[in-house]
Design a protein that fits this description.
The complex is a heterodimer of chains A (about 140) and B (about 60). Chain A is mostly helical and about 140 residues long. Chain A is built from 7 helices and no strands. Classes of the chains: A mainly alpha (about 140), B mainly alpha (about 60).
Amino acid sequence: MEQTNEHLESTVSTEPAELRRINMPATLAICFAGWLIPGLSHILIGRWIRGLIFAACVVVMFVLGLGMHGKLYDLNVEEPLQLLGFIANLGAGLPYFIAERMGLGVGAQTAQGYDYGTTYLWVCGLLNFLIVLDAFDIAQGRKP
Amino acid sequence: MNLSHFAALTIFALIVSTVFALITKNEPKEQFRYGVFVFLSFLAVAFAVGWFMYPLPL
């Protein structure tokens, strides 16, 4: 009987489970994938539900931003302040490149939703940066 | 697409609060509580700032 109890104690630990850590090259690859396709980093780590919710949030926000005639910023060195908009837009990853390729996101300043749309496009990119950082922390075992 | 200011604000708050809640909290109950708090805070601040600006000659 004592032997059984000892066996149970050795298998059921009362300490918190050790956080799984992924090596740095794989972590960076996961982060890159997550930047390119929003939510993919969490899916690759095994956080399916979280990844799908993140993907839905970023994509819905991006599509709504375009639908409201928001503006996507290009890399324009002559206008340094626009660089910030470009970096924010770039955070959306693949949707940004697809929209640019399709000629979307021209931005109609006379449209009612122009300001909101542009803000949506900035914020969805910035949110995706945060999502990638969250995936980095999880992959490095800093977060459960 | 023409969304009203309130609709655009509400959708924005909903999406951002969802992401914030999932990133900052680990337990589902905590996530829900924090998400609701952030969402309502967005709306409350928007109303407060809106009423604050109402008398201004803009």
